[in-house]
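Question thread 4412

I'm putting together a teaching handout and wanted feedback from people who do this every day. The idea is simple: show students a protein as raw sequence, then show them the structure tokens that encode its fold, then repeat with a second protein so they can compare. Below is the first pair exactly as I plan to print it.
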Amino acid sequence: MYTPNYYCNPYGYSYREVLAMHQFPWMYWTGPQTTIPRQMFPPISTKQFVQSTQKYQALVNEANKIINKISTTPKLAHDIMDAAQKSNQSKVDQLIQSTGITVKAKNHFTPDGLVIELSNAKGPGDCCTLRLALKW
């Protein structure tokens, strides 16, 4: 007997045909179809979100003071870079505070630039912190 698809099936019939002859139309029970209720979210309160944006605006204004003072006073820019090059952290802190800011400033300097973190947080986990990364 010649079968044209000998290399696929050397027996002359397929297992699919044999299984189809012996299968009965069974109805399988799949169990109850339950739906999971959607997660309920608490009501929205924008009070804290609005307070955060207001506090952040104050930080942006303080950052603007620093940027304006450094960009318009070349001597201040030179003094900050000179103090950072000499690893004089207290002098850098004093020069940044001399720009007229009223919030806490945490300063870090590297050979690549100066990082100033402004914070008006009263305690841990409180809002807000603004980070300026200035390259030199």
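The second pair follows. I'd like the answer to focus on this one:
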Amino acid sequence: MQRRTLTVAALVGAAAGAALAIGITLAVLAGGSGQSSAPARSEAAATPTASSSSNGGSSTTAAAGDDCLSAADIYDRLRPSVVTITSTAGGQSPFQVPTEGAGSGIVIDEQGAILTNDHVIAGANSLEVKFADGSVAPAQVVGRDPGNDLAVIRAGVSGRQLMVAPLGDSDDIRVGEPVLAIGNPFNLEGTLTQGIVSALGRTFAPGGSTRPIRNMIQTDAPVNPGNSGGPLLNCQGEVIGVNTLLENPTGDSVNVGVAFAVPVNAATRSLPDMLAGTTVGHPWLGIAGQEVTPALAEDLDLSVEAGVYVTFVEPGSPAEEAGLRGAFRSETEAARSSFLPGSGDVIVAADDQDVASVEDLAGYLDTQKGPGDTVELAIVRDGQQLSLEARLAEWPA
């Protein structure tokens, strides 16, 4: 078989942990006021806090019907479930000026638990929640899922009636469906915007993170700094995502019609752990990979036409310890090379679950495994099928 040359730029995913690299600039949506008065506000946000104590508040759940509601009806029902979160960081010494960041949050239980983005509360010394009726309460971080940029905080709610937002099923949404966002863009509290689901299944690594977030929802609903942590809603008024990122080719934190939300099902999976006060960990294998297609198999003279072609193995990773081999010996070599060699392993199964794509492998590990678990990988190397066992680690910070 004649092997054709293949450029690396077209094929190699550079994000470690079996996820494809995405070459666009992303900006988180936590916002500042833009005012110069002290305490100064910054574009950086802080980390969510919530304590698991119950302090006697009462709640009503905002019901979602089977048919689409008007935007006005959804707003009336859900606005009380959306809060503004102000985080204060720094200022612990005479030489530090306190900075404030603003984001949004979603009331998820009657004890004052609020779901938001982890970047909204990261690094905060103190948190304050402002409810739709204008009342404010201090809050504490309960639990975090930094890998999915999610966190739960808890606000003091003694004697306060809360409206709990209904959580939907993000697996049921389709491209083209109408969506709405409620939040605090540019400190404009209670702002409603609407659009459609533009795409599903996007995978991005937020700025400063090494771990990509899977299955993000892309929308053209206008979201801007301050919308972070607020709900993306379907037309029944159910939360289907947590607004998290926007994309702007200029690098500015201003919406240009391309924004992303963490799917609510990712939050649903980690909520029990976050509400229990833990930090959710995610398993790390430590590879960069490329989906095998018939064309790639022909180009590289591979003996299989489906699987994950290992382009790079992170030094010291579970993948290296298990004996996986990548096409390149280092990220530097991969970056400098013009061609993709055919010497990498191909992962075809994980624990007897067929692996046909990077998403198959990443999805299986993320939903079925945790740090410290082992996974049996069926691989093809030089035309021979082998079995390797890897003990997964915590995703590096």
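Top answer:
Good format. For the second protein you could add a caption like this: The longest helix spans residues 264-275. The domain at 31-73+80-164 is CATH 2.40.10.10 (Thrombin, subunit H).
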